[in-house]
Amino acid sequence: MVTVVYLIIGITALLAGVVAGKFIFSKNTEKQIKEAEEKAESILKEAALKAETLKKEKALEAKERFVQLKAEHEKEVLDKNRKINEAENRIRQKEQSINQKESSLDKQIRENETIKENLNRQIEVVNQKRTELEKHQEEHIRRLEKIAGLKAEDAKAQLIESLKQEAQTQALVYQQEIIEDAKQKANKEARKIVIQTIQRTAAEQTIENTVTVFHLESDEIKGQIIGREGRNIRAIEAVTGVDLIVDDTPEAILLSSFDPLRREVARLSLQRLVADGRIHPARIEEVVEKTRKQLEEQVMEIGERTVIELGIHGLHKELVRMVGRMRFRSSYGQNLLMHSRETANLCAIMASELGLNAKLAKRAGLLHDIGKVPDEETELSHALLGAKLAEKYGENPAVVNAIGAHHDEMEMQYVISPIIQACDAISGARPGARREIMQQYIQRIKDLENLALGYQGVEKAYAIQAGRELRVIVEADKVTDAESDKLSFAMAQKIQTEMVYPGQIKVTVIREKRAVNVAR
What we know:
- It is a single chain.
- By secondary structure, the protein is mainly α.
- The chain is flat and about 175 Å long.
- The longest helix has 119 residues, at 30-148.
- The strands form three sheets. It has a three-stranded antiparallel β-sheet with strand order 1-3-2, with helices on one face.
- It is 70% helix and 7% strand.
């Protein structure tokens, strides 16, 4: 670095001399030459002085850097030595613990070997005793077979079969005794409660279909309803969501829809349009909208009137509206509102007979099918949806549980839940309450008879009283009196688990006893 500085200074002096020379030669005066020399010497002195100063500064910096690096190195060495010492200490401790574990393991191994030797000696003794016992047992079995003249396996099979038959007979006897005892104790009170409940309830029924017939004064009105190129009938179907069927039926139009509220809106709208005589798309939309609003008011009025008549208070407005919607819904031909009112009355009477809360039972009976009239279709069953709606609108937990459990889709947690289920079945199973399609009825009767004919020893089977009773005639030489009781019970259980039917089915097994002799 110093050499470079000297070179720079020399080059600077040289350049200065050249400049001075040029100046001297150009002016040709000695005075100027001397001045230039003096100036060059002063420049050289200053450059040498600066170079010496710079050299000392760099030397000091180098010493400081060396001292710093040396201190850092010594610190790193100390840290490494400390870590090495710590690692050596840990290794020594681990070695000591390993040595202790090795000594303890050696001791355990020696103890285990001693235990193993003892166990082997005991196992040998047990095997010897087992062999002797098997020999004695075989000798004993041979003696028994010799005395009885029967092999052990055959004797075991006969004993198991006899015990099985005896157990089945005893179980059937006990089962029949328990059932008879339960019937004797519960039948009287149950009949009393159910009969009193039914007698005190009025049964009002209506039959609802998916088709409503709209009667006309003349067939000429059909053309007005259809309109030019069918624009009127298309407007009615689009606004109401109901299919209009105009066929050769005289003075009648069929309104087809699964939603009874829509059919009612369409029927009332057509009635007003025909009476007014002005039938066109704009008028149709106006009349249908007005009719829909009036029907909503009517639904609310029906719900409020029903709630007041039943003496139910504090019901949410949405639930009141759904109660009104039940008026336009049917289930198996039974009007849903009438069924719910009947169930509510039955529940109140039965709860009173049992000493329970009649108002709460009546409330649950009215709302038990509320899930059948939702505003939006869901994938939930009507029982679970009804429970969800009741919970949403702040109903009592007992009412919510009774609604959700009346088809065994929820666990019954309150006493009124089985009452709701029983009253729902009573209202639906009462003769005349619901209608059944003829094909389904005939198929159910056939399935009932075929189920009975599938049992061994059954000669004939007849379903009587509209499928409420099954008469089974068995062959006397194939079925005994005890087996006939067993057969009746088995058929009743199979019908209960495999078939769907309203009410209950009585199974009667008839066995004819014959005494036959021949005179020769």
